[in-house]
Amino acid sequence: MNIYDISRKAGVSIATVSRVLNNGEHVSEKTRKKVMSVIEKEGYFPNVFARGLNMNTMQTIGILYSDASDLYLANAVYHLEYYFRKYGYNSLLCCCGYEIDQRKKYINLMLSKKVDAIILAGSHFVEEYDGDNDYIRMAAQHVPLGILSGYVSGENIACAYCNNTRAIFDTANYLFDLGSEQIIFIYNMMSDSIRCKISGLKDAYRSRGVEYREKYAVYCPITEINAIEQYIRAIRNQFQFDAVICMDDLFAVAVLKYAQSEHISVPDQLRIMGYNNSILAQCTTPMLSTVDNRTIELCEKLVEMLVKRLNGEDGPMEYSLQGRLICQGTT
Amino acid sequence: MNIYDISRKAGVSIATVSRVLNNGEHVSEKTRKKVMSVIEKEGYFPNVFARGLNMNTMQTIGILYSDASDLYLANAVYHLEYYFRKYGYNSLLCCCGYEIDQRKKYINLMLSKKVDAIILAGSHFVEEYDGDNDYIRMAAQHVPLGILSGYVSGENIACAYCNNTRAIFDTANYLFDLGSEQIIFIYNMMSDSIRCKISGLKDAYRSRGVEYREKYAVYCPITEINAIEQYIRAIRNQFQFDAVICMDDLFAVAVLKYAQSEHISVPDQLRIMGYNNSILAQCTTPMLSTVDNRTIELCEKLVEMLVKRLNGEDGPMEYSLQGRLICQGTT
DNA sequence: TTGTACGCGTTATCAG
DNA sequence: CTGATAACGCGTACAA
Known about the structure:
The structure is a homodimer.
Chain A: H1 3-10, H2 14-21, H3 29-42, H4 48-55, E1 60-65, H5 71-86, E2 90-95, H6 100-112, E3 117-121, H7 134-140, E4 145-148, E5 157-162, H8 164-178, E6 183-187, H9 192-207, E7 217-219, H10 225-238, E8 243-246, H11 249-261, E9 271-273, H12 280-283, E10 290-292, H13 295-310, E11 318-321, E12 324-326
Parallel strand pairs in A: 1-2, 1-3, 3-4, 4-5, 5-11, 6-7, 6-8, 8-9
Antiparallel strand pairs in A: 10-12
Chain B binds a DNA duplex through helix 2 and helix 4.
């Protein structure tokens, strides 16, 4: 069932069918109705490939993200899909791991699939040395490209991110105000946003006139909860930090479990902050204090910026906002 | 840059370029090299729309699921995407909510996008009255269709599911063996798998020669943790159940929090079972006992069955397995 | 307002 | 082993 069949059954030309189907202008009401009734009766819809061949678009966005098990990214992906769908775009999903070669490969795959735009979800895509981000700028030469939770300068690149530096700065100061003195930050993988967070911690120490030490940023290359607990235990045997800011809520859960197993009173002896305000923050007793980095708003804005660009309008291609401290039971 | 440009630069016809690019047979080594070098120099790749127009495929799978916030589905989606990608398929994602009209709409959208197959992830797609599942059978007339965690009979329909009836039967008997007498099951939404679970609970009561009562299946139409706690409190004021089997781990978390807030000793006074063996089961203290319904295996098998079918082979279109009890701290 | 004819970039067929 | 040409189904100038 193609446009020729419809045109024949409706007794018109394919041009008329096409017009009815698309813009709809310059068609008499009478023929329109006739054509529409045939279309509906036959359940006809245009072949997307043929249409794509002409229009060079299939109204599809490529969403890339690094890690399927990361609750933050999972959440982000769904909101991105949701907003794009609202604008009539479908989402082609691809989990591409942490290695840059894979990322490049899948970006090219998306481009070859003729997506209308590309989203890179998560700051892992952003390399520390800006020259290494040329692969992103290259991609942006072909289609508009959006980065969630990271910033890369360049034409055709939209960025939406939470000011992580500031968020951790505020968090640390909040902990200092509560009386904490040895605040550490713990993370399991370096990324653009982690660099910002560490930098925020440094700033906070400096603003208090307290010397910052390298050991306050604890690299814990582990993802399994029990193993994290062990790691924390080992670290704390080295020096008695009294507050932990975690890279995400899962880490905070592990720290809380460590504290509970050691009968360390939370928050009295140890204050714990999570990050991302995920469902995990509500699952513990006491509930985790955490930072809401407002993913949904970021996703919405990012989609909006890209859709505008896709519609030929131009407007801002950068959106940032402040994280919000959610103070619950662990501080 | 299209196939004509390449053919011109290589001094051959487009047919030869196409042959080099695809099957590659019946091309002399010499011309192949010549063509390949041009292709690589120009960074050429075929236009997917034109290719799709001929082949009527773009190597894309449509994955539909009901709920973005459901950890189980989130997990499933990622594994499905992963396995399809391994076989060279990309995944078009669509979250379509719980209403059947939306589901139908998005299934049709997927079909109109010419996906090669459709996955329905989650048992919510399966209606209780089998006649209402005709919409699934209809879709399966166009492309192979896979159901994760549910069963619908029909041509071209692949199903992969965990035997939930049996899993809950085993779970309840395990709790009976531990000494529980009043075991309830709690859920927030009816679905095919929930029906199975309730039926498993009934079976277990019967196998023990104990009368099953309707009130043992508690409908709690709530998703927010605090609200669930309240709800549980109200229920338990009505009758003092001593074990709860939850529809998922999130519910189990809420029940555990309720118990902790009431100083009810877990598992001594109250035993709690989760379901799905999600990350949440590891986040609580004590860790949740739960049921591993082996999502990854199911996803792998489902993808395998569909890919076989897409390759024209035929083989089994049904795969089921037994859930595994993970006995941890709450029983 | 409507229809004709061409182009989009492939793959497949068939002739050489 | 290679090339010319016909589909594939649609959108759209341009003509009527």
